[in-house]
Amino acid sequence: MRISKSKFVAGVQCLKRLYFQVHHPELATGSSEATEAVMEQGHQVGLAAQKAFPGGVLVAVDHKHLDDAVRITRELVGNAEVPAIFEATFEYGGVLVRTDVLERRSRTGYRLIEVKSATGLKPHYAYDIGIQKYVLSGAGVNLEGTCLMYLNRDYVFDGQEYDASRLFVIAEVPLEQTIGDTEISRRVENQLRVLGQPAPPDVEPGRQCTEPVLCEFYDHCNPDLAADHVSFLPRMRTEKVDDLIASGIMSVHQIPDEFPLSETQRRAVDAVKSGKMWISPELAGELSTLRYPICFMDFETIFPALPRFAGMRPYDHVPFQWSVHRQERAGELIKRYDFLAENTSDPRLPFLESLCQAIKAAGSIVVYNQGFEASRLDDLARWLPGHRSEIAKIKAKLWDLLAVIRRSVYHPDFGGSFSLKRVAGAILSDMSYDGLGVAEGIQAGIAWTRLVDPATSPEEKDKLKRALLQYCGQDTHALARIIDVLTKQTSAGAV
Ligand code: SF4
Fold first, then answer.
1. Cα–Cα distances in Å, from 473 out to 145, 467, 476, 479?
2. Residues contacting residue 427 through CB under 8 Å, at least 6 positions apart
3. Domains and CATH numbers, the chain
4. What pTM does this model have?
5. 398 forms bridges with which residues in the sheet?
6. Does the beta carbon of 17 lie inside 6 Å of ligand 1?
7. pLDDT, tens digit, for every residue of 95-110?
8. 298 alpha carbon – ligand 1 mean position (Å)
């Protein structure tokens, strides 16, 4: 048996994860679409990185013919005319690695470069680098340096062609930050031993299930907890949960009055124990600051690693959709407006111009998580400086329902979460996101990418368009209805 670089890294996170990946991949859960989108993005970043090494040669062999890849790599390493090798493949000690870039630095010396879609260094990359160094050295490659190549968040795309020398940062990894061969060898030996066993290793769920990445077997190892479990209090630190569980306290109902909790957590405990929604005496005052016409607004965006349009940096958000529900006066019918970009052209100006029309003369603009919409408006002001004053006026009218809910409302069914989906589900008993074609932000981004893909059939585009409009519209409709319920409960009214 041999393991790959990614399997080795998974095994460093958790030996059981490695075992499941090899022997029981069917136990994995999560969206395969989201995983594929992340992989495709990594692939595109890798291709862009290769442009920084002109004359480099790709070992163009798929994963089913890795022995051929090893042979071709050996030939390329022996050819002094080749300045860089992409996907160079080596095997040593039961481990097979494919190196993003192997750059020739001298006749016999190479520099190993690991390409990341991230915008900075992360501690767990040390194992990515460590395992490759171990295998390459074992396979007889003379390494003169090891580097990480990651995206430069300050790079601004000119809208024409990526300048790979500025799009990426190449940072030397100091020797003291790499994992030594002794530790790598010990871990490889242990991983191969575990994989040879008839049953998975006995590993209890813990912090490793979410760090450094969310494990795809999370749902399998962490069965559903009761709705009143102590971990479902807002912002509960793991140590606090562990303290309670160690004292035999699993249910919120058992938490003693003297147990130290934040004000929000204490309110949540009281709401769960009483079974009633808690409302702060200040809520009526907060709601009375709303001014008609009230617009309920939500944006959808994607934030690609590689900037799409002129003026954008890696991971800048492309705003592709908005929804607005608008109420002119108390008791009047609420009207719906929306915008959805339907092709690959730059959506920023039409997004903003149509939005300005829909929210014209608004008194208050209700959003959920003001920081997000405000940041997107700041982005638009940077890209479209001619619209700065209109954008500043919109920003001045933003009214954040999330902040109000956090301060002044807790429903026993929030389960520790203040997400709009959870809050709407708890406060509006007849509203659910179940069964929607698109039910969360990540899915919306994936659906939009398919919608604007010229290869997507007209029937599929139609379906995606309907799903996106329904999802974003449901969010703004939920905002309007939550405000309505809270207003009735407090008898406060907007003016
Ligand atoms: S969920 Fe946790 S315990 Fe289970 S395999 Fe993943 S990391 Fe290991």
1. 53, 10, 5, 10
2. 277, 409, 411, 482, 485, 486
3. 3-195 (3.90.320), 230-274 (no CATH), 283-491 (3.30.420.10)
4. 0.90
5. 365
6. yes
7. 999 999 999 998 889 9
8. 35
